[in-house]
Every structure is written in C-alpha cells, then in structure tokens.
Specification:
The complex is a heterodimer of chains A (306) and B (400). By secondary structure, chain A is an alpha/beta fold. Chain A has ten helices and 14 strands. The two termini of chain A are 24 Å apart. Chain B is an alpha+beta fold. Chain B contains 13 helices and 18 strands. In chain B, the strands form four sheets. In chain B, strands 7, 8, 9, 10, 11 and 12 form a six-stranded antiparallel sheet that branches. In chain B, β16, α11 and β17 form a beta-alpha-beta unit. Chain B starts with a helix and ends with a helix. Chains A and B meet through α4, α5 and α6 of A and α4, α9, β15, β16 and α13 of B.
Chain lengths: 306, 400
C-alpha cells in the first residue's frame, strides 16, 4: 500500500512540451512511472521522450483510457482551464506543478474539483512519490539521486517544501529508514490538499507507521491540524518540524514560499509549535533531529506498543 | 501589490463609492491651497504603504489653511514606519456619527472568500479573519458566486440600518464586492466607513491589495488609474536589495535572489524555499550574525550565482561566507561550486584562506566537490545536517 500514487498510477502530463515538464517527464519515465500521454494544444502528433502528445485531455483519454492521474504544468494564466479540463475528463488525482496562479483561479478550480470529488495536490507542488511504486514530478531529481534519498519503507512525509522533502528523506535514508509515500503539498497559501485532508488517508494506510510533517510559518494549516487532532484520535505517531522561526519577528514580510508570511499573531512558527505539541505531535527543534525522533517511534512500534 | 490610500480611493470612487473631498499634495504650499479649496477643517494623511500610520503620528488635523501648511511642513520629509513621507492626502474633516468596518478578502482555511462587516471600525482585520470574533460578521462566499443582493441586504439590516440608509449600505457592499472581483484584489478594506451626521456613508480610508499573480491581466486596468507595478514589502528596499533584485531579474533561469539585508558579518547563499527557512533559523540559533538572506534554487546558471555571490562578498562588513543548501532535486551542485569560486577569484579572494563553509548535495555533487578540493575549500555533503553546517559556519566566524 501507499497513498495517492502506487503501481496502478497512469499519468497524463498537461503542458508536456514545456521546459520543466519535459525534464520531469524524463525523470518519471526513468523511474518507471507510466506516462501514457501528454497534452499541449496545437502540438498533437509530436512526442516527448516517446510519450505521445494530444491537443485535448479528452482525445488523450480516448486513446489511453487507463489514465488516472494528471500533472498540470501549464503557464499560470492557463492553469484553471487545464485543471477544469482534467476534472471534466474524470481524472481522479490532479497534481498542480505551476506556481503563481491567480488566487481567484486557485479557489475556483479547487471548488470545481471538490464538487466533482477529484483530489488536487498543489498548486506549487513539485510532486510526490511512493518509492518502488510511482513518482510524480521531478521529486528527488535523476533516478540515481532519487535512490540516494528515497527507499521504500514505513515513514510518510507531508511537506510544504519540495526541496526539504528530499532533504528529510535523505536524513531518514542515512539512518536506515524508508518512505511509504512522500507528498509536497505545495508552497501556496491556498492548496488542494492540506495536512488535515491527507492524514485520514495515512491513518488507513497499512504501510505507513510514522508520519513526518515539514511545516512553515504562514496560513493556519498546522493550527487546523492540531484542532482536528484534538477531536479525532489519530492512530499513528506524528513528528513535525517547523522551519522559519525568524519570520515571526518580521511580520508582513514574505520568505521562501508565497504562503510564508506572518500577520499579527496568525501563522507564527511559535504558535504552530505550541498548537501541535498540545495536540500530541512530537515537534523537534532542529531539522537534523527528525530522523532520531522517527527512529525511536519506529522501534517503539516494533516492540509492539506505546 | 498594496495600493496607496489615494489610489484606492480613486478606484472606489470610479465604482460609485463616496470618498471625502481631498487633494494629493507634495508641498506645504499645496497643502495650504488644498485646505483653502476645502474651506473647512482638514485631515492630513501621510501616503505610505504601511499599516498603523495613525499611531505612528502619520495623521494630523488642521483647523485652518495656515495650520495645514505648518502640519504638512512637519510631516513631509519625516520618517513614518521607515518610509520617508513625500505625499499627503489633504481631506475634508467629516462630521461623524458612527465608524464602521467593511472588507472583502480571501480565507485560506475555507479556500474561498469572505465579506466582513463590523459595527465598530478601527480593528485589525487580519487578526479577526481566521478567528471567530463576535464583533465581526462574516459572510462566506463561494469562489464562483460573489456577494448576492440578499446577502448585502441582510448585512445592512444586521447593522441596524433602516430605510434609505439600508438601501445605500446594500449598494455600497455590492459595489465594494465589484471592486474586489473586477480588480483581482486579495483585500479591499474600508476602515473606517463613516456614517456622517447627515446620513451619508463615506469611505474614509481605502486599503486595497491586488493579487501579484494576477497583475498580468490587471495591468491595463490599473494603468488607467495611473497605478504601475511596484515591489512591495513592509519597508522600502535597501540599495543592496535593489542590486540583488536587478541580478535576479537580469536572468530568468533559477531563483538566485530574494535578498533581504541584515546587519551581520556572515554572508549567506542558502537553499531556496523551506531550505532557506531552516538554514536561516539554524544560523541564528547558533548565534550567527547574517549579513543577508538570499535564496538559491531552481538551477540558476554559474554566471548568476557568481554575480550574486560577488554582491554579498563586497557588502561592507562581510567577513565570511556560508553557502548551504538542502539536497538538491533540480539544481546542480557543480554550478553552485563553480559560481562561488568564480566570484572569489574575480574579486581576488583566495578561496582556500577565506572563511567559507560549503554544504550541498545532489546532482553533480562529485564534480562540485572536485572543484572545491582543487581550490582548497572544505565542504560538507548530505551526511552533515543543515544545523551542523550552520554551526560550523558560526564557529568559523568567532573572533572575526
């Protein structure tokens, strides 16, 4: 098992002829994830690393009815349209790579997907992977590099940063631990799948034993997670790290990702640490402490109890 | 992009909202002339892109044109919240019966928009949007369907407005919503909205923020109001930051920039996004004194890295450099190493003796490490944590 992506994943890349989409298409093929088709309006008949390009999502689906996952990597102004096209074609999982999509468009496309029961990850998401099974996007880079950070295992990572997801996986790998599924949820303020929306899937995933969260200041996603945890008994241990404490002292300034901005008392790193600790999450002070904390929890789990 | 109050009011007015009679002035003489024209007591409001100017002394009152001239003399050229004041809005002072609050904005927790109304003006909305304060009435709006007349009506009634006043409140709410929708705003806030003694609703302030990511489709509309793109932050950019931005803008490839100046002695070139947040924290926690914040990621070319690196090395007071990144996914370690060495050699700095910590890993790391070895530079790979690398950089700076 794993969540969202696994051995059954069959991918469509929207905007496949773009610079970055071409690169990650190659990276996914190298991994062994079936990329069945791509879409770039007006470029039907071309191919990218052997992947056929179609003009529309529907024509791609007609030729490849097994497609169940789409990656959207079109320019920001065209993103809402591309996402709606994928929703209308009944693709169940859409991973949005594009960043800097207008806020109104983001909210509209997320609402459209929600009303059609389609799951969105992103925007501004580098992708996700279930090592040994499937990979979306350029997560971990070339295959040889990917393997040095991600190996199959029982730790799930949900990260607001794509780069730090791989750093986190790399630290776990150095300490002999592997990954069930790692998801870069996206660095934007409004995203399709927040921590609260993904945790129930991990609760039900038999492969996942421990969950690691890479958190950042800004938005209320960690606070909402903590509130949710207090209402629901979550069956698996969670280790979290919150980067960017210095941002608390510089309200109104944006650092790193679009969502990283502290307003008044909302979204501060300190507030997130406090809320998550009160909800029973193990929050470590240093990123370098994550692997140690996870190891202890995994060993406890092997010993068969709390 | 945050708009100045006078720009916001220009927009509100064009959508049919009433704003106080006012003039934008740049000199005490103009202020006096404006007060003369208004022919009554006036308010002088500094035009800066910061919240809380009232408390910082940026709003004054004047009973006569003479006083207006004197007050503006004090305000113009002064510093309010780090901004040098060069423009004032001189407005008629209104006869107030009641101060209200009204705003439209996004709410990330519900992934939608909210329309906010309060009986009392003056509060800080950002603290209230995500909380469940009773003072603030929130109407949640679907991303596809904006404020409807029935919602505007019920809000007007909830404020206790009857008859004609109720009608004008409804119409004001709908117009404000139209501004929000039409301009791709992320915030339209009128605080306070004044109810005057003669029963008019007047927007006494205007705080409008336009979605930076929607500027591509709003430029023409904004330019019609003489509003042009600007970089906004909570303080004006420093000369150092302006230079760094120019380097980033000169080459679209990769992120190498987003520089913020700090007063310390340790120059930083750190991994982008979450990596920079982690590393900057780590440097501060170890007691380091950063000279700057600067992200690198998205595979910038050697030339861009070296230009940025040079800028940092040449910053007065910089005595050491830490180049640290998370394990790269799509950037190349050899480009990073090459860029740093190139900058040093071009500045006549010996990389083998200059205080330098290098921590990076990922694609082409062996090539990168080989370059560093060739120039006698010590480096760390993925087996050293980000915090340990930062600690090494801070230790290196001791006594310098």
């Amino acid at each position: 098992m794993a969540i969202l992506v696994d051995e059954n994943t069959k991918v469509l890349v929207q905007g496949i002829t773009g610079r970055e989409a071409t690169t990650f298409t190659q990276s996914m093929l190298e991994f062994g994830t079936p990329v069945l088709a791509g879409v770039t309006p007006g470029k039907a008949g071309q191919s990218v690393y052997g992947v056929p390009v179609y003009n529309t999502v529907n024509s791609a689906i007609q030729a490849h009815p097994d497609i169940n996952t789409a990656i959207v990597a079109v320019p920001p102004a065209a993103t809402k349209d591309a996402v709606m096209e994928a929703v209308d074609a009944n693709i169940g999982l859409i991973n949005i790579f594009t960043e800097r999509v207008p806020r109104k468009d983001v909210c509209q496309m997320l609402e459209y997907a929600r009303s059609h029961a389609v799951r969105i990850v992103g925007p501004n998401s580098l992708g996700m992977c279930s090592p040994g099974k499937a990979k979306l996007g350029a997560i971990g880079g070339p295959q040889e590099e990917f393997n040095r950070a991600y190996s199959p295992g029982s730790v799930a990572i949900l990260s607001r940063s794509g780069g730090m997801m791989t750093e986190t996986a790399s630290q776990l790998c150095i300490h002999g631990m592997g990954i069930s599924t790692a998801i870069n949820i996206g660095g934007d303020p409004v995203i399709g799948s927040t921590f609260v929306e993904l945790l129930p899937l991990l609760a039900d995933d038999p492969q996942t034993t421990v969950i690691v969260l890479f958190c950042e200041p800004g938005t209320s996603s960690e606070e909402r997670l903590a509130a949710w945890m207090r209402e629901h008994r979550f069956p698996k241990p969670i280790v979290a790290y919150v980067a960017g404490n210095f941002v608390d002292k510089m309200p109104g300034m944006r650092f790193g990702h679009a969502a990283v901005i502290v307003d008044g008392n909302t979204g501060s790193a300190l507030g997130k640490v406090k809320a998550m600790r009160e909800a029973g999450i193990v929050v470590v002070d240093n990123h370098g402490d994550i692997a140690g904390a996870v190891k202890i929890l995994l060993e406890k789990n092997l010993a068969g109890g709390e | 992009m945050r708009l100045y109050e006078y720009e916001g009011k220009r927009i509100l007015q064009s959508f049919g909202l009433e704003v106080p009679q006012g003039f934008l002035v740049k000199s005490p003489q103009e202020a006096r002339a404006a007060a003369n024209q208004i022919d009554g007591p006036v308010v002088l409001k500094t035009q800066i892109l910061a919240t809380g100017r009232g408390k910082a002394g940026g709003i004054r009152f004047a009973a006569t044109p003479m006083q207006a001239e004197k007050q503006s003399q004090e305000l113009l050229g002064s510093k309010i919240k780090d901004y040098t004041v060069d423009q004032l809005l001189v407005e008629e002072k209104l006869d107030i019966q009641k101060e209200l609050y009204v705003a439209a904005t996004y709410q990330e927790s519900t992934k939608g928009r909210v329309f906010l109304v309060s009986q009392s003006g003056g509060m800080e909305v950002n603290k209230e949007i995500e909380s469940s304060s009773d003072a603030l009435q929130k109407t949640y709006l679907s991303p596809w369907i904006g404020l409807q007349p029935y919602q505007a009506r019920s809000l007007a009634f909830s404020l206790g407005f009857e008859g004609k006043l109720n009608q004008s409140a409804q119409s004001l709410f709908l117009k404000l919503w139209e501004v929000f929708e039409t301009l791709d705003a992320t915030l339209v806030e009128i605080n306070p909205l004044l109810l005057t003694r003669d029963g008019r609703l007047i927007s006494a302030d205007a705080h409008i923020e336009i979605d930076n990511d929607a500027l591509f489709r709003q430029r023409d509309r904004l330019e019609a109001f003489k509003i042009f793109d600007r970089d906004d932050n909570t303080r004006p950019p420093t000369e150092f930051e302006i230079q760094a931005l120019a380097i980033d803008k000169a080459d679209y490839r990769g992120v190498a920039g987003r520089v913020v100046e700090f007063p310390g002695n340790l120059g930083l070139l750190i991994g982008a996004g979450g990596g920079s947040l982690t590393l900057f924290d780590a440097v501060l926690r170890s007691g380091g004194k950063p000279a700057n914040y600067c992200e690198v990621g998205g595979n910038p070319p050697v030339s861009k890295i070296s230009r940025l690196c040079k800028l940092i090395l040449q910053k007065p007071g910089v005595k050491g450099l830490a180049v640290m990144t998370n394990v790269f996914s799509n950037s190349r370690v050899d480009f990073l190493a090459r860029g740093v060495i190139k900058a040093m050699l071009e500045l006549g700095i010996d990389p083998s003796t200059f205080p330098l910590v290098f921590r990076s890993a990922g694609a082409y790391e062996e090539d990168g490490y080989a370059i560093l070895r060739m120039h006698g530079v010590r480096y760390f790979g993925r087996d050293v944590t980000l915090e340990d690398s930062a600690r090494a950089a801070v230790t290196m700076m001791e006594g310098r």
